[in-house]
Amino acid sequence: MILSDHFIQQCQALVGVNSVIADQARLRVYECDALSAYRHLPALVVLPETVEQVQAVLRLCSTHQIPVVARGAGTGLAGGALPVERGIVLGLSKMNRILAIDPVNRTATLQPGVRNLAISEAAKAHGLYYAPDPSSQIACSIGGNIAENAGGVHCLKYGLTVHNVHQVKLVTIDGELLTLGGSGLDMPGYDLLALAIGSEGLLGIVVEVTVRLLPLQPQTQVLLAAFASVEQAGAAVAAIIADGLLPAGLELMDNAAIRATEAFVNAGYPINAAAILLCELDGMPEQVTADSARAESILQGNGAIEIRKASDDNQRKRFWAGRKAAFPAVGRIASDYYCMDGTIPRKHLAAVLKQITELADQYQLGVVNVFHAGDGNLHPLILYDANRPDDFAKAETMGGKILELCVAMGGTITGEHGVGTEKIGQMCVQFQAAELQQFHRLKHAFDPRGLLNPGKAIPTLHRCAELGHMHVHHGQLPHPELERF
Amino acid sequence: MREQDLSEDLQKQVQQAAATGTALRIVGSDSKAFYGGACQATTPLPMAGHRGIIDYEPSELVITARSGTSLNNITSLLAQHRQMLAFEPPGFGEYATLGGTLACGFSGSRRPFVGSARDFMLGCKIINGGGEVLNFGGRVMKNVAGFDVSRLMVGALGSLGVLLEVSLRVLPIPKSELTLAYTLSAGEAVTKMNALSVRPWPLSASAYDGEQLRVRLSGAQAAVQAAARQLGGDTDVQGECFWQDLREQRLTYFQQPGNLWRISVAPASASLSLSGDWFLDWGGALRWLKTEEPAEAIHAATAKVGGYAVCFRGNNKTDWIRLDPALMALQQKIRAAFDPLKLFNPGRLHR
Questions:
Q1: What is the ipTM of this complex?
Q2: Where are the domains of chain B?
Q3: Which of A23, A237, A286, B21 gives 20 to 30 Å between its CA and that of B225?
Q4: Quick one: pLDDT band at residue A175, thresholds 50, 70, 90?
């Protein structure tokens, strides 16, 4: 056993024997998150049920200098919850109660393990909902959403997690409980709430969250437009935005995505189109009528070969069914896929998609594009076969090239999935050494010994040097535990 | 004034200051010098010459500009393309700069409905206390690479670094706007503001001046008209002027002498038992208070409801802001992480 029996017994004393997992078979569950290509068996899993227990466990880990990796529902796509050498996994899934819904102030106060979708379900009775809707919303938890600053399909109009949270209670590595934000709309001094959101478990452990709820919109309309070329679809996206429309969602699927989903859910998509756009408009009926008419004429003017308007709620759901089933649909045409997450300025959409196709040819791998075109957030799905030797390595290298392309185009290596373990190499491409050092100094202000999620999100300069300009196969790094700042 | 890039000069000045241990007072147009604690630095770092739009394409909904660019320049350029800084920042002066706007992080009446200054911050270039030029965030809407340093800069009053360039998200100007007015008591106004916010009305502002509740509707003309019909009330034909005067604090309420406190609370909070004159904005979540009550009483009353207070204008420069000790200690560590020599605006936010 890597951790001493004494340490394990102390954990058991703090949270109870049943909330500490130390046996191989059950530890296996925690060896990876949704990026299952990276695996590492944790030394110990601790499942606290109260804020006090979280504080006590962190104090214990701090005293013994044991690294702590926080984990929510384990649905992250970047290996952010990947266990680390000699570290514990602090699973927050037992803290899953909705503490309060305040319909008058339009807030919900939640323990970190509450599922994203459960918030909207609980708020529905009051005519309210929680806007950020990552694709994993059935399973993912609000604590993880905070850690990753999760997005979703409706970010263009309703923002990311950071735009929809009033307050977070955070426990530091020393066991101190901090309240960031407040009952109002801002906090005094530095905006530590904004800093905590998206910090990938490096600064503290989220133990309570108060989110903003919005009124459910009375009407929603979806337009489906087909295009003969991806370039035209990209141009139509820019034209819609330039005209002053702000769709709730604006999604693009390329031909490969259309065919895969059509074969799977039969959403009625035009399978010969090079690309389709799904444009969702919501608001008061008068607003939706006005916006739909404008959107339709813009799509027409930008060369749409076919435009369909959902005539009722059922058809609207059918339009979305294809988009929502896109990932599992791709799972049917390829044995494995690797989902990327770069963001680019919208004007480069067509050019970047073309280069992605060229990269796919070069690496002889399939690629499917289905993504949030409205905010320029790409999700190329690289198809590979894990049973073929070198296939994942090829997919990983190609994925890295795509992210570097995003940076070269003035974009970023991650729009909503986070850096985690996966994109640690590309961080060396996106940021200069001085910027990475500034990140480390900031981390140091919260966690001077580097015990919280070490090795994730922010690479050491040592690691950047070792990786060279580009990353290699992360899983095969000779020293997974490099120097900490 | 012509556009120019003074980044290198500014960097040299900061490096020089670091070498000699000279604290700097970062100055845009000094339009918001009234705000915050007393700045202990006397050597100015003038920013207004570092100006110019670097990148703006309306279809990207993003503008990037040097921090000395005047806010008026930016808003008028955006308006030409029917776009706006949706957080409606006040200038408090004709020559207010973009950098000062974000360093203060003030947001106007649209804030509860579309977001605050920090919500629209996408990226920035700064000089830290070590004299290094650093880039954080970017020019795209969604970006979660690295810690969100850009948003941390908003409201930091310059104490973490000198802003050189800023990228902001912008939004389309609504096709149509209309202001409704209702004569109500304070209690009724709070109830109505919150009742309206629970329903999907196309709201973009609601404020109560002690006599009248004004509600602004924004959107397609047909939607605004339909909402106005259903909501009733009087149309305030001077509505647009009212919102501008509120934003710039030109209304009579703000002109009266005395300390002006800015109180941030949950929007439906009952009135706080503090004497003085109140003015409510942000649908009830931002409450202005003209009062001679001692700072102690104000901080205590707001903390009790989970909110906080700052002395926005007035002679209280020592107890104008209050943080609990653990948060204060952490904020000081964060400041040291960016500016270990305390070169930038010492005293303005933290000592």
A1: 0.97
A2: 7-172, 176-247, 255-313
A3: A237
A4: very high
- Tell me the per-residue pLDDT of B41-65, one tens digit each, with 9 for 90 and over: 999 999 999 999 999 999 999 999 9
Q: Are strands A88-91 and A68-71 parallel, antiparallel or unpaired?
A: parallel
In this structure, the dihedral spanned by the alpha carbons of residues B150, B151, B154 and B159, taken in order and rounded to 10 degrees, is: -60
**Owner of token pair 């994109």:** A423
Strands A219-227 and A336-339: unpaired
Reply yes or no on whether the pLDDT at B72 is more than 80: yes
Question: The tokens 């202005």 sit on which residue?
Answer: B288
Q: What is the pLDDT of residue A481?
A: 37
Q: Domain spanning B7-172 has what CATH number?
A: 3.30.465.10
A334-408 CATH fold: Alpha-Beta Plaits (3.30.70)
Average pLDDT over residues B230-249: 98
Q: What is the CATH number of domain A219-327?
A: 3.30.70.3450
Domain A98-215 architecture: 2-Layer Sandwich (3.30)
Q: Write out the H or E segment, with its range, that includes residue A73.
A: none
Instruction: Report CB contact under 8 Å: B198, A192.
Output: no
Which residue of A190, A281, A375, A460 to mutate against B (max B Cβ within 10 Å)? A190
Q: Indicate the pairing of strand A44-46 with strand A88-91.
A: parallel
Domains of chain A: which residue ranges? 5-91, 98-215, 219-327, 334-408, 424-472
Give A201-238 pLDDT, tens digit per residue: 999 999 999 999 999 999 999 999 999 999 899 999 99
CB burial of A305-333 (b: ≥16 within 10 Å; e: otherwise) equals: eebbbbeeeebbebbbbbbbbbbebbbeb
| pLDDT given at position A171 | 98
What phi and psi values does residue A7 have, to the nearest 5 degrees?
A: -65, -45
Task: Give the tens place of pLDDT for each residue, A152-171.
Answer: 899 999 999 999 999 999 99
Residue pair A59/A66 in contact by the 8 Å Cβ criterion:
no
| β-strands A177-181, A219-227 pairing | unpaired
pLDDT for the residue numbered B1: 66
Q: Do domains A219-327 and A334-408 have the same CATH topology?
A: yes
| A270: pLDDT strictly greater than 50 | yes
List C-alpha distances in Å: A67 to A11, A42, A44, A81, A451.
14, 11, 11, 12, 4
Residue with the bigger pLDDT between A474 and A350: it is A350
- Between CA B90 and CA B251 the distance in angstroms is 13
Chain A neighbors of B308, CB-CB under 8 A: 182, 184, 187-188
Interface of B with A in 78-137 (CB under 8 A): 82-83, 105, 111-112, 115-116, 118-119, 128, 132-136
pLDDT in the model for residue A474: 37
What class, spelled out in words, does domain A5-91 have in CATH? alpha beta
Token duo for residue B205: 């502002």
Comparing B60 with A478, the larger pLDDT belongs to B60
pLDDT score at A470 = 37
Q: How many CB atoms lie within 10 A of CB A263?
A: 12
- 8 Å CB contact of A343 and B142: yes
> Rounded CA gap, A413 and A417, in Å?
10
* Right CATH for B176-247 from 1.10.10, 3.40.50, 2.60.40, 3.30.70: 3.30.70
Pairing of strands B24-27, A380-384: unpaired
Token pair, residue A338, equals: 């690797």
Q: Taking the model in full, what pTM does it have?
A: 0.95
Q: Which candidate from A182, A192, A215 shows the least CB-CB separation from B308?
A: A182
Tens digit of each residue's pLDDT (9 = 90 or more) over B278-302? 999 999 999 999 999 999 999 999 9
